[in-house]
Structure formats: structure tokens, C-alpha cells
Amino acid sequence: QVQLVESGGGLVQAGGSLRLSCAASGSTFSMYAMGWFRQAPGKEREFVAALFRIGGSTDYADSVKGRFTITRDGAKNTVYLQMNSLKPEDTAVYYCASAPYYSSTFYPRSQREYDYWGQGTQVTVSS
Fold this sequence. Notes:
Elements (H helix, E strand, L loop, with lengths): L2 E5 L2 E4 L4 E8 L7 E7 L6 E7 L5 E3 L7 E6 L4 E6 L8 E8 L16 E2 L3 E6 L1
């Protein structure tokens, strides 16, 4: 069983920064890719960022590109989302997700690719 636990959310003013963490645990944990998604009130959950373990390549939604950075600490089995220049429209519950296995057709922006999900952490950006 794999557990993902997010932390680091909170209330911040527009223009501020937050760093979210996603700690993975479980005897069977392995990672091909990790993703961050978010869900704002009344909206569907959407892709934010993804990182591939092999090679460390990343992918970002256009709405966060240049402001958010996804990184990982392999020794700690932790993935981070550094969020800078936050905007009120970034307000959402942020979820991390894990895709354990390689696939030649893997599409990191699809929620269906991810097998494990955290419980989410609230990020609120005030104007």
C-alpha cells in the first residue's frame, strides 16, 4: 500500500509564495512519475505539474509555467511544488499523485495515469 501525504498549504496574499510537500510511504512505493493537480470550488480537478523520475523531466500547465516548480528529494521520497507569484485564481485544493509504472503512452496531464492520490491541501490566495 502506498500513502501520499501533502502539506504546506495555507493562506497567502497575492504575489506571495508557498511550497507544498508530498511525502510518499509504503513498502511497495515506486515511482515513474509524480504529478500535482488542483481543484477549485465548483470546477473540475486540473493538471498543474508533473515530474519523471528517470531524467527528471518536467511538465507544467500553461497557467503556472514560469511561476511553479516541481522537484523531488529521492532520499526522502518527497516531491515539492514551489509556488511563486501566486494569484487569487491559484486558490484550490492541491493534490499530489503517483504513477508507479512506466508506460510508453504515458500522458502526465491525465488523472487516469495516476494510481495513488493524497488527501489534498488547501491553498488560498487573497487579493
